[in-house]
UniProtKB/TrEMBL annotation, chains A, B, C, D:
Keywords: NADP, Oxidoreductase. Belongs to the aspartate-semialdehyde dehydrogenase family. This is Aspartate-semialdehyde dehydrogenase. It comes from Halopenitus malekzadehii. The keyword Nucleus does not apply. One of its GO terms (biological process) is methionine biosynthetic process.
Length: 346, 346, 346, 346
């Protein structure tokens, strides 16, 4: 089975990562790349300033870029990936949905909307059921699915694993890579020999998205998880890979070993891009792991790596890490696309 | 008034910082520099591989290094600063104390001993009274005073300020500079494009030392503060300046503004090396501060800088920063020395 | 004597450095700060995003920013410093010169014009005589003086010292700091764990400006120096300080010691901002110096530091270093301003 | 055909790279790993602190480490790779050669010995003929072949390509990665926000080894190439990949295009680890390449990448780059091993 896919905003940093990850994908066949009006009509090679560490796939290089408009995208495209800036996405996604396209979007707009599924396929695949609610309410033929922010996705699989012990509260400090801000988002003058303890909007995303992802869907309505989540976000001089320190307050009193087992046993999904082992867990013998440069490519950048699990007086503390531009962005949208196909929405 | 001082372990990284900070000190006159047997008899210039960013003071350069032994240090030296590795210090400090020297030590041994004052002059100067207990118990003529670890000292002044709102629990994540591990402690292969979520022994130091510093001394015995402290320590690619994210649980419910005021009003000490304003607080208009490279030299590296104060459901979160090799090491010992003089122990 | 000065383009990165360096200057009193129309009317504090590592001087913070136009600058300003982008400077400097202002400019336009003095006060102060030629030819009441590019200024004092041995050819490789590209010129994604062997236009600047600086002025015409200069320019992950490897072909055959002496003896100028010792020279005992982080602040950032001098079969090789945004930009213009005053042009 | 190989000094940084590169090698089967006496008897997993970015191959992990002594290595091992420190290698290699082993060594001792071939298979494979001379003179049954230093190997293929235009002189500045100094060779305090213009012994290696590699062997004696080579070596904050700026003086006067063609046409070798295209050349449209992080993995780290070719008044200048721990160390020795097999020495 082949699914024809398109990329909205294909020339940007995440758009390039989509193209890299879709190369040789067994199911998805890239059939359309869109960009702003200024790029329409050019070949992709001309339109994009390619910066990914593997060459542009030859066939994509010669593909014609079209405008980000439903009328410009072929009708036989079944699935669109979107990595537009959130203000652009807020304006552009609705027309595609009205026109009947299924959109798997990495853009931050509408993530918390009550009728928009925010999904990590290994964690809350059932939330896709919200698509029915969404179609009812909005009258769309298409469907809109979102994946969470890169810093949220890094920790949520570990929090899901902890929830069997009664997750009540989580305090998280992040050490985030510069690529999360886009190619030009952090200047070298800002970050060499430095760290920046603030990333605009990031803390709120972590605090709200995580409660939605861990929430429950009864077929009609989604309830947020009751845990209280509080985050402090820092930018540090790493290229890729978000590292996070988590302090979790639990109602039960598990041992560090029980927590490691719960993380290790957290099920993965049976999808092409899902890791065999969702969470790789380092034990006490390697307390200095995970580290961004050494662990960000685990499972081709789609895995979560945890370590440093220790009990505290009110629960546990530990560290977790994921590749922010693969598992945390383009790879997350592609994985949601795979789930949409698997569950028959496409 | 002039106090003749010596430095135990004067050729190492912290030893060099002592020499830099003591240059032009109004009260302390450097009269002795000690090192291992191999260096004894050499001039300081010959013995030390000088790496501080200002030149060796001329008079110190020509000073003769003596062995780290009471018999080698002139009797008229009133105060010794120590920055020896903790295992060396544990062996070497007692003979000096028996010989009657007053020692202000940055070494980590004995910091938690019941009869050893662990002091930050602006926070718990009264703990110096433990010296009487110490002399009673150990039969020393001298006196041993310790300053806390660099990561502890960064946060404790802010926690002290918060305690008026009932500090019950603190979760802290640190982003620590490589200089904290000594000149060769972190290799470039380890830290370029990377972060390391573990520093051996550091978390425990933060968790125990902070409770002693915030504890109360009734003239006979010291009670630890009741707050629960839990830390996760990370090394990042910065040269100097530890940045920390603090999540504090409070019994009261202050506004962010009230917390900023409490920090701003936290009193400094009337000592030469104390800042006029102990804690500099950035408000909401500059949420991206403090930053290590921009803020570590506040008050000549002796100040604390805080920012990003926000309320949470159970208290507040905020960030704080201090220069780890000045306020967090050599400067801390010198400041304790100034307090010892001020309070008449010398 | 007090000279009232203004800064054209005062809110940019170099403009901020001008303000920092002019604070407490014994002769120059800052009387006007200009910026683009959008900033005119604001206070300097409002108009500038201040990023220098010392606070904005209080009096400057409250100064009103005026438009970069002769009619907006008070008539009693005697000297203008300019750090505008070269295309803006090319349009804006002439009206000021026609209006009679003396302009000491760091902008790269017109540096190679035959009637514009390009000066390093310690090296070719006599080239200021070109002002007479300039006034004759252009009919200006004012005067335009340029300082060279940051990478040029780093090596030229050492080449001048070598010229006593007959400088015939120089090959230079640069290791340049990111601040040379302006605050946002180099992104962190470009430079972490990387180097970039190209800086647009930089090589040509080094090759032509150096020959003008080392050239001779006979009172009427300036002859370029006959040496052949060839450069390769690299950007590396340092914040400040350009390091350069020079291979010089000489007609004579001096020893390394003779070359070091020539550099050490290269005279400085008797101006406020000139170092006492123009070139600090490391000898064989410290072959690993100069280094950007350790040596860029020599002489408050206005000195040149050299080292690693070794003979080759056709001359010598050595390394040199200067602070690119002080000696290489704002400081260079201020120093030219001091020379203009000293020589009576103001 | 399978060749049983061993690694002398298998637990060090280069030793680990050997193991990584030999995994899945079509011809070489790892049969022995040696280390110092302290490690003998342990499994490789126990003995090595593994730091390479792929896991230890399972079979190697369980292999028993033996002492670095001919009596401890099985007789049926045909080829030994060596990456011992040069002083250790100088003592240890001769006994292995006397015992009849063929040794392909990355250690720097004996590289310039008159009867030891120093080879890059694509450049001077005929120099292997020196083995006959070596056996005659030394009475060895074995054979010793060396590969050059990492900084030498980066430029020599490009110099070989240039030699058709009459290479007379080369000035080279290097920007070398920290991995070249070994895992702990460069501390983070030395190199963050810094560069070091000196690497002990490196310049001389580049100046002498290159003339031997480009020299001619008449079957009996090797003549050094007549070109004069002068190098300045710098350490910069990159992890892997040496970048070099070359200024070459030529007797002919080729265009930049002719030089690019010569480099592009420089033949590779028909060996497993040789790239299809030995030198990848960027043209004028991408003057900012090659860059360490973007280009070091070209041809699995075994290729050379060049760019920025421009004519000068006496020849050309250009930049070149290679992966220092693959093409510049372990990969170079393995490639020499492949040549030894191909030419029938094993």
């Amino acid at each position: 089975m082949t699914v024809r896919v398109g990329i909205l905003g294909a020339t940007g940093a995440v758009g390039q990562r989509f193209i890299q990850l879709l190369d040789d994908h067994p199911t998805f066949e890239l059939a359309a790349v869109t960009a702003s009006e200024a790029s329409a009509g050019k070949t992709y090679r001309e339109a994009a300033k390619w910066r990914v560490d593997t060459p542009i796939p030859d066939d994509v290089a010669e593909m014609e870029v079209v405008e980000t408009d439903p009328s410009a995208v072929p009708d036989d495209v079944d699935l669109l990936f979107s990595s537009l800036p959130s203000d652009v996405a807020a304006a552009v996604e609705p027309p595609f949905l009205e026109a009947g396209y299924v959109v798997s979007s990495n853009s931050s707009n509408d993530r918390m909307a009550e009728d928009v599924p925010l999904t990590i396929p290994e964690i809350n695949p059932d939330h896709l059921g919200l698509i029915d609610v969404q179609r009812d309410e909005r009258g769309w033929d298409g469907a809109l699915v979102k994946n969470p922010n890169c810093s949220t996705i890094t920790m949520v699989p570990t929090l899901a694993a902890l929830d069997r012990f009664g997750l009540e509260r989580a305090h998280i400090a992040t050490l985030q890579a510069v690529s999360g801000a886009g190619y030009s988002g952090v200047t070298s003058m800002e970050i060499i020999d430095n760290a920046i303890p603030h990333i605009g909007g990031e803390e709120e995303k972590m605090e709200t998205e995580s409660r939605k992802l861990l929430g429950s869907f009864d077929g009609a309505e989604l309830s947020l998880h009751g845990a209280d989540v509080s985050a402090s976000c820092n930018r540090i001089p790493t290229l890729d890979g978000h590292l996070e320190n988590v302090f979790a307050e639990l109602s039960e009193d598990p041992s560090a070993e029980a927590v490691r087992e719960a993380m290790h046993d957290q099920p993965s999904a049976d999808l092409h891009s899902s890791p065999d082992q969702l969470i790789k867990v380092f034990d006490d013998s390697e307390p200095e792991r995970p580290q961004p440069r050494l662990d960000r490519t685990y499972a081709n950048g789609m895995g979560i790596v945890a370590g440093g699990v220790q009990t505290t007086t009110d629960g546990v503390k530990y560290n977790c890490l994921a590749h922010n531009t693969i598992r945390g962005a383009a790879g997350a949208s592609i994985l949601n696309g795979e789930l949409l196909v698997e569950d028959g929405w496409i």
